[in-house]
Specification:
Helix content: over 70%
Distance between the termini: 33 Å
Strand content: under 5%
CATH class: Mainly Alpha
Number of strands: 2
Strand order of the largest sheet: 1-2
Radius of gyration: 24 Å
């Protein structure tokens, strides 16, 4: 009697599972296979030469790849350090019903997130321009020295972090607000009866009950920042002196400019494993049920 029901279940699941297999699972397996071969993208797949783990050993011998790996981690960590407290503070402020205009502020905060990253990078490239950019014009107004921004070894990476914070902060603030709406007011009423003040309510009720929302923010932000590509490609091309070269850009450069798809696939698979590892560690750390 359960056979027709099982067939119906399989029938409903097949389109979704099929798309998952075609667009996610198969590309991952193909990338893993290509990473074990020497192959130029100018030749068919049938002409690949199997070399085992040679591509992996070669990329770890490259100073550029090691630098890109460090830059990727630094970019991700910098975003986490800046955006997690900012999103929490802004979310708590904009959740207050007593404040007027919060809906408008939420809208303006979220708008940059829906703008294409390439368009955002082009605009910020103008803002960061050392010759006529508005940021240096503001510094000149206050009689401060002009900065190189994207042309500086010390400032280029942080300039990209600021760009990403401006573009994506609103998204994470909305998640914090959504988490706050799920907290029952009964907890706060009970705490008030017990004599708890606002600070105690924040640290003993709000923040602990926001754990699921904050864990989601940390995981999604880690995944997104470890895969950063658009602003690097548009603004710096990994410069100056590889100070903004990240794994995704170095992978693109290796595959399309140097024609070495085997090493590029090895970089892509390593990045995939890094993202997967960090996601699993964060899920276990926060002990969520996702």
């Amino acid at each position: 009697m359960n056979k027709p029901r099982n067939l119906t279940t399989i029938g409903f699941l097949f389109p979704g599972v099929g798309l998952l297999a075609v667009f996610i699972i198969f590309p991952i397996l193909l990338t893993a296979w290509v990473s074990l071969n020497h192959w130029s993208m100018l030749t068919p797949l049938s002409e690949m030469n199997f070399v085992g783990f040679e591509n992996y050993s070669k990329i770890f011998d490259q100073d550029t790849f090691k630098k890109a790996l460090v830059n990727t981690f630094m970019y991700s960590i910098s975003n986490l350090i800046v955006m997690i407290p900012l999103s929490l503070i802004l979310g708590l402020l904009l959740y207050q019903a007593a404040l007027k205009g919060t809906a408008i502020v939420r809208t303006f905060l979220f708008l940059p997130y829906i703008i294409p990253s390439v368009a955002v990078a082009i605009v910020w490239g103008y803002l960061y321009s050392p010759m006529y950019g508005p940021f240096n014009e503001i510094l000149d107004f206050f009689h401060l020295p002009a900065q190189q921004w994207l042309g500086s070894l010390d400032q280029a990476m942080m300039s990209l972090v600021i760009l990403n914070v401006w573009q994506t902060l609103g998204y994470y603030v909305i998640i914090v607000i959504a988490g706050l709406t799920e907290i029952s007011q009964d907890y706060y009423e009970a705490a008030s009866i017990d004599g708890a003040n606002a600070i105690q309510k924040l640290f003993y009720i709000t923040i602990p009950l926001l754990k699921r929302s904050m864990s989601f923010i940390v995981i999604i932000m880690t995944i997104n920042t470890l895969q950063v590509f658009d602003p690097i490609y548009v603004l710096t091309q990994g410069g100056p002196a590889n100070s903004t070269t990240v794994v995704s850009y170095h992978m693109y450069d290796t595959a399309f400019n140097f024609g070495n798809a085997g090493q590029a696939s090895a970089m892509a698979f390593i990045l995939y494993l890094v993202v997967l590892l960090f996601t699993i560690l964060q899920l276990r750390l926060f002990k969520t049920d996702y």
